[in-house]
Design brief:
This protein is mostly beta strands and 177 residues long. It contains no helices and 10 strands. Strands 1, 2, 3, 4, 5, 6, 7, 8, 9 and 10 form a 10-stranded antiparallel beta sheet that branches. The model has no long low-confidence stretch (mean pLDDT 92).
Length: 177
Amino acid sequence: IEGFYDEYQEDSVSLVDEGYFAGVTASYEHFFQPDWYGAVEIRAARGSTDYESVSGTIDGISQWDTETRLLAGYSPPYYQQGRTKFYAGLGARYFSDELKGKTSSLGDIGYDRRIFQLYLPIGLTYEFAAYGLTFAPNIEVDKLLWGNVSSRLGTIPGFTNIENEQTEGYGLRGELM
């Protein structure tokens, strides 16, 4: 179970879409040798965001955020204090923004947006025991490899859908498990 904050920006139209999400994550990790491992992760989250652009503002927009990741990593042998795990892999993210049927503060009509992204996650986790529990803080950088934003403007009379390719970007993650 998780909660997180997400912010999406498009500088060309001064767009900011930000909000909080709650979700669930499932993962499987397998060590192939004492120091080498692979992992599969899936995640689904639902949230509510606030939108602001040159078109005005809209609050309380429903959104879905899903991810699938394949990871490979190296983990040196345990030390007395803990275990360090390095990893990299391939991630895919699908994001659904449900603005259709909403109207902005300036009277503009909303539309749905779908975002698909492929990215390279590179991270570090440090597992250690304390107070009878095992903690695993994690830090990660996600390098965007490719993305597509499908703006479904076709639901507004006189407009057509727009596809916007994403060629650069990044994400940062931090977790305490």
